[in-house]
Amino acid sequence: MKLPYFIAIAGFVCGLFAICIPHLSALRIWLGFSTFFSLVYIVVAFALSLRDGVRAPPREYDIPGSDISRVFTTIGASASLVFAFNTGMLPEIQVGPGWVGLN
């Protein structure tokens, strides 16, 4: 099966849950099943990841170039990560403290 089918099934189950379980006291059984299936999923995912990691061939992770080239490559990669994960901060900084004095 493909991902869209799983998404549709999960949406259907959530809708069915919302219709069939109207109050919190009825959640007792649902939480038990949910906990059980979550733990099964975690164990299976961990076991499969461990098996794939043990069977994988060794990899080479050396950074090519001279020592100074490696330093600048690392700085550039870090700057890219900071930019990628902090782009949402710019509008907050621009709108933040400057607008306080205008009220």
UniProtKB/TrEMBL annotation:
GO terms for cellular component: membrane. It is found in: Membrane. Coiled coil: none annotated. The keyword Cell membrane does not apply. GO terms for biological process: amino acid transport. Residues 1-94 form the Amino acid transporter transmembrane domain. The chain crosses the membrane at residues 5-24, 30-50, 71-90. Keywords: Amino-acid transport, Membrane, Transmembrane, Transmembrane helix, Transport. It holds the Pfam family Aa_trans. This is Amino acid transporter transmembrane domain-containing protein.
